Each structure stands twice: as structure tokens, then as C-alpha cells.
Amino acid sequence: MSKDVKVWPRIASQQLGDYRVFHLRQDTRISPRTGKQHDFFVLDTGDWINVVPVTLDNKIVLIRQFRHGIEEVTLEIPGGMVDAGETPVLAARRELLEETGYEAEEMIHIGMVTPNPAILNNRCHSFLARNVSYVAEPKLDGSEDIQVEVVDLTIVPGLIATGQISHALVIAAFYFYEQYNEEK
What we know:
Layout: E1 10-18, E2 23-30, E3 37-44, E4 48-55, E5 59-67, E6 72-76, E7 79-81, H1 88-100, E8 102-103, E9 106-113, E10 124-134, E11 146-152, H2 156-161, H3 168-183
Parallel strand pairs: 4-10
Antiparallel strand pairs: 1-2, 2-3, 4-7, 5-6, 5-11, 8-10, 9-10
């Protein structure tokens, strides 16, 4: 049995819907192993960012918000979509300020993941925002309702272990943060 996995050539692609934050498309691809056609559905969406905001006194800025997919209030870090024409680092700065009212002295790219490569075509970039300080009221859009919480960084592992922080991309960002600190 061959251990080489090959790219499946795309022979057709059709957009099925436009839903503001993503487009649904159907791709028809040929299996390089069997030669047979198969249809796949892909959500085209822009890249995302997450920000681990750390204050001068080693506290972390978290947010609580209602998440419609799971119909629960979650505890997370600031994050969002990279707008058209925007770089991930600019999106990270913008989202941090809009959602929390905090700005960072330094923004460091600490990692990237593919959120669900089976059906999504985007990436999520994680940033460390160093020496953040509160500079203004958050500027929430009409679809956001966010509460800012500042907690000691040392309690974050417990928040993850107990499921109080359960968002997979947030947990990935904290993993990148931990790896970044170990390398220093």
C-alpha cells in the first residue's frame, strides 16, 4: 500500500451561497487513488485572529460574550475576522481595541492554526499583545455584547481545565503563548 497521499485535482467548483461572513462552495475532485469523482463542500471565509492580551502586571484581559452556535455565554480572548485589505496584525490591534478598549505596546505573532481544514479554507493567527493598557471605551458593533474581565494569568490553566474556557481556538492561542514563553 502506498504511503504517499496526493492532492486531489479539482475539476469543477460552484458557489452555492453568500452568507456575509462566508461563502458556501461545492468542489468536484478526482481521487488520485481510485480515479472517481467526489463532491466536497467548503466554507470560504477570511482569516481570523485571536489576541492574548497581557498587562504590565501579568494579568490577562478576557471577554465574555454570547455565542449563537452553542447558545451559551463563553469566556474567551479578543478575536475576530481579518477585514479585506487588512493584515492579521492590524486586525489583531483593531479587535483588541474595539472589544476591550485596550492597546498593546507590542504585538507578536505567536502561531497559526487551520480551524477545520475539512470544510474551512482559512487560518486563525494568534498574537501576544504585550503591555496592554486601557485607553478607551470598547466600540462594539450592533451584534456584539461583550463584558471585559481582567484576571491573573496564573488562573488561566484552571479556567481551561474546568471548561470555563472551552473555545478551541482560544485554547490553541494559550498553547502558543505557553510555547512562546518557554522559548524565551
